[in-house]
Amino acid sequence: MLSDSIDRIVLAVEAEDAMGLRELSREFSEQAVTVQSEELIDLALVTYCFNKIFSKVHFKENLADFKVKVLAELSRGDFKAVLDDVEAFDRQFGAFEGNLVVKARIKVGSRLYSSGLSLSQSASLTGVGVSDILGYVGETKTHEKIKPFSVAERYRLAKELVRK
User: Smallest Cα–Cα separation from 110: which of 150, 144, 81?
Assistant: First the structure.
C-alpha cells in the first residue's frame, strides 16, 4: 500500500497536478482517521504542501532543482527530508509570512478532528498544539459541513476493523 501511495504522489508531483495532490491529501487524511499511522499523516502533509506549491505562481517559477530533490526523497520514502526541504523552499521563495509545513499540520489536524478524532489525538498525530487546530477550526465552517459519525456508525466501523 505504501509503495502504491508513493507512486501516486510521484506521478502527481511530476505532472504538477495540484488538484490531484489535494485529493490525495484528503484521501490520506481520511485513512489516517481509522489507522492513525504516522506514515499516512506524513503522506497527507506532503501532498498538501505540494498542492500549495503547485498552485502558487511564485513557487512554480523556482521548481526545477527542488522537484528533482524531493522526487528522489519521495522514492526512498524519506518524508521527513521532503518536509524539511519544503520548509527551506518556502523560506526561500514563499511570498507570505508563516511556514507552509506548519499550515499543513494545522489543516490536516483540523481534518482529522472534523472526521471524528479527538482534538488531542489530532494535535498529537500532526505535531501541532490543540490551540492551533481550534484556532483554525474556529475560523472555518468545516465543522458545520462535515456530519460526524453516529455512535451506531462508529460501532459498526470498529467491529469491521476488529474483524480485519
Answer: 144
DSSP state of 15: T
What is the amino acid identity at position 100? L
If we measure between CA atoms, which residue out of 85, 106, 105 comes closest to residue 13?
85
Please name the amino acid found at residue 145: K
137 close to 110: Cβ distance less than 8 angstroms: yes
pLDDT in tens, 94-134: 877 779 999 999 999 999 998 888 999 999 999 999 999 99
pTM of the model: 0.82
**C-alpha atoms less than 13 angstroms from C-alpha of 140 in its C-beta half-sphere:** 16
Pull the grid cell for residue 110.
483540523
Element (H, E) at 3: helix 2-14
Alpha-carbon torsion, ordered 83, 88, 92, 94, to 10 deg = 30
Element at 35 (helix H, strand E):
helix 18-35
